[in-house]
From TrEMBL:
<keyword id="KW-0472">Membrane</keyword>
<feature type="compositionally biased region" description="Low complexity">
    <location>
        <begin position="93"/>
        <end position="109"/>
    </location>
</feature>
<dbReference type="GO" id="GO:0008270">
    <property type="term" value="F:zinc ion binding"/>
</dbReference>
<dbReference type="InterPro" id="IPR006896">
    <property type="entry name" value="Sec23/24_trunk_dom"/>
</dbReference>
<keyword id="KW-0862">Zinc</keyword>
<dbReference type="InterPro" id="IPR012990">
    <property type="entry name" value="Beta-sandwich_Sec23_24"/>
</dbReference>
<dbReference type="Pfam" id="PF04815">
    <property type="entry name" value="Sec23_helical"/>
</dbReference>
<keyword id="KW-0813">Transport</keyword>
<keyword id="KW-0653">Protein transport</keyword>
<feature type="region of interest" description="Disordered">
    <location>
        <begin position="1"/>
        <end position="129"/>
    </location>
</feature>
<dbReference type="InterPro" id="IPR036175">
    <property type="entry name" value="Sec23/24_helical_dom_sf"/>
</dbReference>
<dbReference type="InterPro" id="IPR036465">
    <property type="entry name" value="vWFA_dom_sf"/>
</dbReference>
<feature type="domain" description="Sec23/Sec24 trunk">
    <location>
        <begin position="262"/>
        <end position="488"/>
    </location>
</feature>
<dbReference type="Pfam" id="PF04811">
    <property type="entry name" value="Sec23_trunk"/>
</dbReference>
<feature type="compositionally biased region" description="Polar residues">
    <location>
        <begin position="110"/>
        <end position="126"/>
    </location>
</feature>
<keyword id="KW-0968">Cytoplasmic vesicle</keyword>
<dbReference type="InterPro" id="IPR006900">
    <property type="entry name" value="Sec23/24_helical_dom"/>
</dbReference>
Length: 859
């Protein structure tokens, strides 16, 4: 969910408590474009939300990495069924919404040496309360867990966690430059919740209860001394190992900035598109560090590989594009005299010459019918990145010492050579050729991943690029797929942000839980990892996910259930993220969370994080929304969820057939209403390719971006350049104001007609809104498109369609949910009321009542 590349292999993960299923969805992005002038960022900072992304699903007690599930049913329980693990989305599988298969209750913790002194000699870190679920990399949907299985496993609300393996933390994590202590039985790591015998240095595992030695390291005179060990005092620690373990090791100072980036550029562009592309490319080159190595490849009917050894002219070696290059061709290219990757300090002027020499497409052929050998071009790019280290005679490929990146700038579909599709959908053999192209592109993406190379595909223009064919190439390599309206400013921003992203490699996510908890679904940018650790840890039943890359913007959405009624006062969750960072250091990040268990439903609901719960529900829902008909089913699913939550967790209104919605989670239904009518499930987005790209981006998105994509953030400009955050209701459209609406992949600036008529005030408000829009999206990838327009213009429909039509509600309800109305005069309110046009979309309150549920009181 941004997307998992899954292997065709359908075997379950582990035999013991079955592993969950991971659902693959490649990351794709809606048109990020900035249609107003770039604005210098202001010094004022605005708060942003946190971040996560995709899903794993198991229908049985054994989790499997699988395909998207069908819509949940909330009436009678369904017997869980094992879901196969697939490489690409297939027919939605039934989702298990009832209790998981019953497994034997685990026995109480035991002590392998028979000693009972452990109970009295606990580390002080165990007795000090630590906020549960508060690590910035790990966000739980609730900070408490219900003890009773039947109550906890209500599928309409669910319980889960969002894990962002690459997220930067502030302050940074505790760093430990030694090997961690691990449980000999299950492989879990020692942590701040471990019971310590200070006399012997032994520690008890929180996951399986086994007693382990520490080679005398944890022997201490007092419990306070143990706090000097970072892993025993902090919920998040990084174990770091550095050293020259790879044949082509690059020094720490050079590895990140010297990593090569190869631009693979479509040369079949018409003049207007080419002019915008050239501007973006020139700015891109100027933004690169001087040590960054760059390569430039053009593709059309042939592949042109530009040579940087010529200082005053754009010179290229040309390779036919109709088939994959032979080993002899690649060998002649790589061992020749040309320089195809060169550091910026030596090649900036040559790069500018190359981009200036590009010419528009001259033949009179429609855009969609032009020969483009994108697949061959990417193969050549991988070969020049690999360089002479590749042994072509034996087919041996060595991993480069740094993470490389290929950025494809595409203006149309791949129609020539390997991985291509026919020009027209009407071709009699199109389905077969598309299927073959999908497999070939995925294979090429996996090959790139094996070479530590990430492929980002940035598309622009009006020509359909055949999203389903190109997307597996980006997904399998751990890259992103982004759609733009043109090659202008937003494209240029994403080009720069794509190349600047830090990507770790060889990522592995291990998840361990108390025996009371079972993982039922995982959504995210990874695939099932087949790792046998039983020789080292005889009872390791962790769920292992291979991450395609490790980046800050990625997230995994993990759904969980109670395996049985919980008798203990706490449950434990441990997440171990292993990867090689951009400086070639091996990192093991260990995050351990302890959550209390409760019997009381109100107490549990009070601990629910509405935003996290909404994102988890949204990702599970979007996983099944593959087609337009699926989208309709998913909207019905959301309705059923809201009704079921009210039915299971609240009561009837006296003398009424309406159920109350739990007041403890009063924000949740409005978030789900935004999801239901917004671009992810509503009819705002027209073309199915755009919806597909948006959906795949969302499934892998961090919590911050995912929450914004579900529900927009609305900020009204005030005199003096300040902003007031308001509910995203159409009541915000007051004619004398300016409003910024951040919807994740789009940011809209709306100027009221009365304000727009005053040129000076309008200019000041617009400048402030632009500055705000750029600041809140400064680090977002992909960069959103930013649109500014006036009240009543044709583009204003983008803005209006994303606001809840609260003008249909009675005045008392409007004031309760939108208190800012009370500051308006009678004349202003009358004017606002008369500005609305009637249409059939229900307001939030009307929708809730249509479900026989009373809208919750606003906070």
């Amino acid at each position: 969910m941004d997307s998992l590349s899954l292997k065709p292999d359908k075997s379950p993960i582990a035999p013991a408590p079955p592993p969950p299923t991971i659902s693959p969805e490649a990351p794709r992005f809606p048109p990020p474009r900035l249609q107003q002038d770039q604005i210098p960022s202001s010094s004022i900072k605005y708060p942003t939300m946190l971040s996560p992304a995709n899903g794993v699903k198991t229908g049985s007690s054994v989790p499997h990495l699988s395909t998207p599930p069908a819509p949940p049913v909330f009436t009678s329980p369904v017997q869980p069924a094992a879901v196969p693990f697939r490489t690409s989305p297939a027919t939605p599988q039934p989702i298990a919404l009832s209790s998981a298969s019953s497994l034997p209750t685990s026995s109480p913790p035991y002590f392998s040496n028979g000693s009972m002194e452990l109970q009295q000699q606990l580390s002080s870190s165990i007795e000090e309360p630590v906020p549960g679920g508060k690590s910035p990399c790990v966000l739980f949907s609730a900070h408490k867990v219900l003890k009773h299985k039947k109550q906890a496993n209500v599928p309409s609300l669910g319980f889960g966690v969002l894990v962002s393996p690459g997220r930067e933390t502030s302050p940074g994590p505790q760093v430990i430059q030694r090997d961690p202590h691990r449980c000999h039985d299950c492989g879990a790591y020692s942590n701040l919740h471990s019971n310590i015998l200070i006399g012997s240095g032994q520690w008890q595992c929180v996951i399986c209860g086994n007693l382990n030695g520490s080679e005398g390291e944890y022997i201490a005179l007092s419990k306070e001394e143990l706090c000097n060990f970072p892993e025993l005092s902090s919920p998040l620690v990084d174990f770091i190992q550095t050293g020259n373990k790879r044949p082509s090791f690059v020094s720490v100072t050079d590895s990140r900035t010297s990593a090569p980036v190869v631009l693979v550029i479509d040369e079949c562009l018409d003049e207007p598109h080419l002019q915008h592309l050239q501007s973006s490319l020139h700015a891109f080159v100027d933004s690169l560090p001087t040590t960054r190595r760059i390569g430039v490849i053009l593709y059309g009917r042939t592949v042109s590989v530009y040579d940087f050894s010529e200082e005053s002219v754009a010179s290229a070696d040309v390779i036919p594009g109709g088939s994959s290059p032979s080993q002899e061709t690649l060998k002649a290219l790589i061992y020749g005299t040309g320089i195809y990757l060169s550091p910026m300090h030596a090649s900036k002027e040559v790069a500018h010459l190359i981009f200036s020499s590009l010419r528009p497409y001259k033949l009179n052929v429609p855009e969609a019918s032009r020969d483009r050998c994108l697949g061959t071009a990417v193969e050549v790019a991988l070969a020049i990145i690999q360089g002479p280290s590749a042994d072509f005679s034996r087919g041996v490929v060595k991993r480069p010492g740094v993470n490389s990146r290929i950025i494809v700038c595409a203006g149309g579909p791949n129609t020539y050579g390997p991985g291509s599709v026919p020009y027209s959908y009407t071709h009699p053999n199109y389905p077969h050729k598309e299927k073959s192209a999908l497999k070939w592109m995925e294979h090429l993406g996996r090959k790139a991943h094996q070479q530590n190379t990430v492929i980002d595909i940035l598309c622009a223009g009006t020509c359909p690029v055949r999203v389903p064919v190109l997307q597996p190439l980006a997904k399998a390599s751990g890259g992103t797929f982004v759609l733009h309206d043109d090659f202008g400013e937003a494209f240029g921003i994403n080009l720069q942000r794509a190349s600047a992203r830090a990507a770790g490699s060889h990522g592995l996510l291990e998840i361990r839980c108390s025996d009371d908890i079972i993982i039922t679904q995982v959504v995210g940018p990874g695939e099932e990892a087949h790792i046998d650790t039983h020789e080292t840890f005889k009872n390791d039943i962790s769920l292992c996910i291979q991450m395609l890359s490790v980046e800050e913007t990625q997230c995994f959405s993990i759904s969980m259930e109670n395996k049985h009624d919980i008798k203990s006062d706490f449950v434990f969750f441990q997440f171990a993220i292993k990867y090689t960072n951009v400086y070639q250091a091996d990192i093991t990040r260990v995050i351990t969370i302890r959550l209390p268990t409760v019997d009381s439903i109100p107490e549990y609901l009070q601990s629910v994080e509405d935003g996290v719960a909404a994102v988890l529900i949204a990702k599970r829902t979007l996983l099944g929304a593959k087609s337009y008909s699926d989208v309709i089913d998913m909207c019905t699913t959301i309705d059923e969820r809201v009704k079921d939550i009210a039915l299971k967790f609240s009561s009837l209104v006296p003398k009424s057939k309406f159920h109350r919605f739990p007041k403890e989670i009063s924000l949740l239904p409005e978030l789900l209403f935004h999801l239901r009518r917004g671009p992810l499930l509503g009819n705002i987005v027209g073309h199915e390719d755009e919806r597909s790209v948006l959906r795949n981006l969302f499934l892998n998105a961090s919590f911050d971006l995912a929450l914004r994509m579900v529900a927009p953030r609305c900020l009204m400009h005030r005199e003096g350049g300040t902003f007031e955050e308001l509910a995203a209701y159409d009541l915000v459209m007051q004619s004398d104001t300016a409003v910024v609406l951040d919807h994740g992949t789009d940011v809209f600036i709306w100027l009221g007609a009365e304000l727009a008529a005053d040129e000076a005030r309008s200019a000041a408000a617009l400048a402030a809104c632009r500055t705000l829009a750029e600041e809140v999206t400064e680090l977002r990838f992909p960069a959103p498109r930013i649109l500014a327009f006036k009240e009543g213009s044709s583009q204003a429909r983008y803005f209006v369609s994303r606001l809840i039509p609260a003008h249909k509600d009675p005045p008392y309800e409007q004031e309760a949910r939108f208190p800012q109305l009370r500051t308006l005069t009678t004349e202003q309110r009358t004017k606002l009321k008369s500005s609305f046009i009637h249409f059939d979309d229900p307001s939030f309150c009307e929708w809730m009542r249509s479900l026989k549920v009373m809208p919750p009181e606003p906070i």
